[in-house]
Specification:
Strand order of the largest sheet of chain B: 1-2
Oligomer: heterodimer
Helix content of chain A: 40-55%
Structural class of chain B: alpha+beta
Largest sheet of chain B: 2 strands, antiparallel
Order of helices and strands of chain A: EHEHHHEEHEHEHEHHEHHHH
CATH architecture of chain A: 3-Layer(aba) Sandwich
Order of helices and strands of chain B: HHHEEEEH
CATH superfamily of chain A: P-loop containing nucleotide triphosphate hydrolases
Radius of gyration of chain A: 18 Å
Strand content of chain B: 15-25%
Number of domains of chain A: 1
CATH class of chain A: Alpha Beta
Number of strands of chain B: 4
Shape of chain B: elongated
Radius of gyration of chain B: 22 Å
Structural class of chain A: alpha/beta
Shape of chain A: globular
Number of strands of chain A: 8
Largest interface: A-B, 19 and 15 residues
């Protein structure tokens, strides 16, 4: 299989790029793909923490680029999944420590080893962002259904097009469908209408994400989490599977809510992964 | 949203709709690099052109950017001052209370926003 380099970006900070990268990477690895997740947010690394790998870092991306170590030495193997690796960002350097040519070469090196290379982009539109997209075949944009995030996403879409990349796909993250239904927030349809790109997934706001982050465990492992299932679905769509976009319409029935209360969550996510 | 909104057929936009509309205008401005100063210039250009042919109410001209049906639009609302109208008044015979007033009548209507409504 030809390997794919996918960059996850957003323009605005704090919309869930890193969480999305960690979870889609994990979900792809759960489905038997060889996956590298790359933290390109040099100086502000966080992907390691979301994956619970923060205390295993010896070498980082800048070390690889500068030839201080080999790529294999810097790649950290995930604790849970044998096919998932992390290339952490340097914490003591800044975005200008790496240039676009070096980044492109790094992507080529990673292609040889993995089916999927997911690059977590820094916020902003400066050098760090340009480095993150330079070697990418595909771009995923993460946006929250609020004005600042969608506005920045629109700017990013323009820059991605200007860089000659194919049209990015969108993940609407942190949707509060109750508020959207009441008209207190923009809906997914509104966001799509404004941005005019294809939808890859809808991730509902979910308190369990915070718990998962605190534990250093991606939410896709949590079978009862709607956000976890949404990330799984997004990963399946990346792999070309037809998964209906039911993340929003999916309202838990009374029976299901009762079941969750008693602790028998739907094993949906698990089934999908194992099959 | 009260009962009066229902009667008048006017509905207050929800916060979600408001965000979407504000966002659309902001995006048009961002994409086209149009700022309020440029809009003012366009407005005065428009006024010079139109008022050469029509009597325009310059106080109430409104020009803004919008995004509708996938098009970025420049929308202008240019109210035209009402003209002085004069016409022949010849009431038909069956009109009651004909008091003998016949002939040419001149009605002058000058656009006057508040008092009109």
């Amino acid at each position: 299989m030809e390997s794919r380099v996918i960059t996850i970006t957003s323009g605005k900070g704090g919309v869930g790029k890193t969480t999305t990268t960690a979870n889609i990477g994990t979900a792809l690895a759960l489905q038997g793909k060889r996956v590298a997740v790359v933290d390109s947010d040099i100086g502000l690394r966080n992907l390691d923490a979301i994956l619970g790998l923060e205390n295993r870092i010896v070498y980082d991306l800048v070390d690889v680029v500068e030839g201080q170590c080999r790529l294999r030495q810097a790649l950290i193997k995930d604790k849970r999944l044998p096919d998932l690796y992390l290339l952490p960002a340097a914490q003591t350097r800044d975005k200008n420590a790496v240039n676009s040519v070096q980044m492109e070469q790094l992507c080529q090196q990673l292609r040889a080893e993995f089916d999927f290379v997911l690059i977590d982009s820094p916020a902003g539109i400066e050098q760090g962002f340009r480095n993150a997209i330079v070697g990418a075949d595909e771009i995923i944009i993460v946006a929250n259904p609020e004005m600042a995030s969608v506005r920045d996403a629109d700017r990013i879409i323009g820059l991605v097009e200007a860089a000659g990349k194919p049209e990015p796909r969108l993940i609407v993250n942190r949707l509060r469908s109750d508020m959207a239904r009441r008209g207190d927030m923009m809906d997914v349809a509104d966001v799509l209408e404004v941005l005019g790109v294809d939808l890859l997934g809808i991730v509902p706001e979910d308190e369990m994400i915070i718990v998962a982050t605190n534990k250093g465990e991606p939410i896709v492992f949590e079978k009862r989490s709607r956000a976890g299932r949404a990330f799984l679905h997004a990963a399946q769509r990346i792999m070309g599977e037809e998964v209906p976009l039911d993340e929003v319409t999916e309202v838990p029935s009374l029976l299901e809510r009762l079941r969750r209360l008693v602790g028998f969550g739907p094993a949906l996510a698990e089934k999908r992964v194992r099959s | 949203m009260g009962i009066f909104d229902f009667i008048t057929g006017r509905k207050k936009p929800t916060p979600g709709e408001l965000a979407k509309e504000r966002l659309k205008v902001a995006l048009v401005q961002d994409r086209m690099k149009v700022n309020p100063e440029l809009l003012e210039l366009i407005k005065s250009d428009l006024l010079t052109a139109i008022s050469r042919r029509l009597d325009v109410d310059e106080q109430h001209v409104e020009i803004r950017l919008a995004r509708e049906d996938h098009w970025d639009k420049l929308k202008a609302e240019v109210p035209i001052k009402r003209q002085k109208i004069s016409f022949e008044w010849d009431p038909p015979a069956h009109t009651t209370a004909v008091t003998g007033l016949r002939g040419k009548v001149t009605v002058e209507v000058e656009k006057d926003d508040e008092s009109e409504l």
